[in-house]
Every structure is written in structure tokens, then in C-alpha cells.
Amino acid sequence: MSQNNNLAKGFLIGFLAGGTVGAIIALLTAPKSGKELRADIKQKSEEYLDEAEKYLTEAKDKARELINEGKKKSERIIHDARSKSEDILKDAEKVFKDAKVKTTDVYATGKEKLESEAERIKSSVKAGLDAYKEAKNS
User: Element (H or E) spanning 26, and its range?
Assistant: First the structure.
């Protein structure tokens, strides 16, 4: 955007300088009296100033439009980014909840298996001890 501004400024300066030089040369080479020449120079300079003001006004309007358009686009991008980040957060929460449920299920199943195996081992050890005591007493 800075490059466009520099280009526009350069164009405006070149336009004004070229127009002014051309007008002065045309006026100086025309066979007129000094009074007529000064009036023509004054008129032409006023015309060029009016044109320059019109050009600057148009440039300001165009710049304002570009700025507003840029603001709208950036607001749209920010809105989209927020929306997507919220979606990602919701997905992450769902994955976390699913993982928590699965972990709880695995933990409960593992605990049950461990307790049943512990009971089986305890009963095996008790049976072994009872058998040992019987064999020792007999």
C-alpha cells in the first residue's frame, strides 16, 4: 500500500510539474501583452490548483475506502479465526472427555481383574497351606 501511495504522489507531482511547465511555455511563447499574459498565468494556475485539489480529494476518498475495506477483511479474518479456535477447543474437550471415559473403564476393568486374580492367588496359597498342615500332621 505504501508503494501505491509513493506511486500516486510521484504521478501527482509529475502531472503538476509537467502541466505547469507546459502552460508557462505556452503562455510565454504566445504573442500577448503583459497584462493578458499575467491574467492567463493566474487563470491557468488556479485551474491546476483546482485539479490538484480534486485529485487529492479523490485520492483521500479512495484511501478511506481501502482502509474501510481492509478493516472489514481483518474483522472477518479475526471472526473466522475465533470461530475455528472455538471449534478446535470443543473438539479437544470432546477428545479429552472420551479419553477420560475410556481410561476410567480400563481402570475399572483392570481393577476387577486384579482383585479376582488376587482372590484366586489367596485361595491357592490358603489351599497350599492347608494341604501342608494336613501333610505335616499326618
Answer: helix 2-29
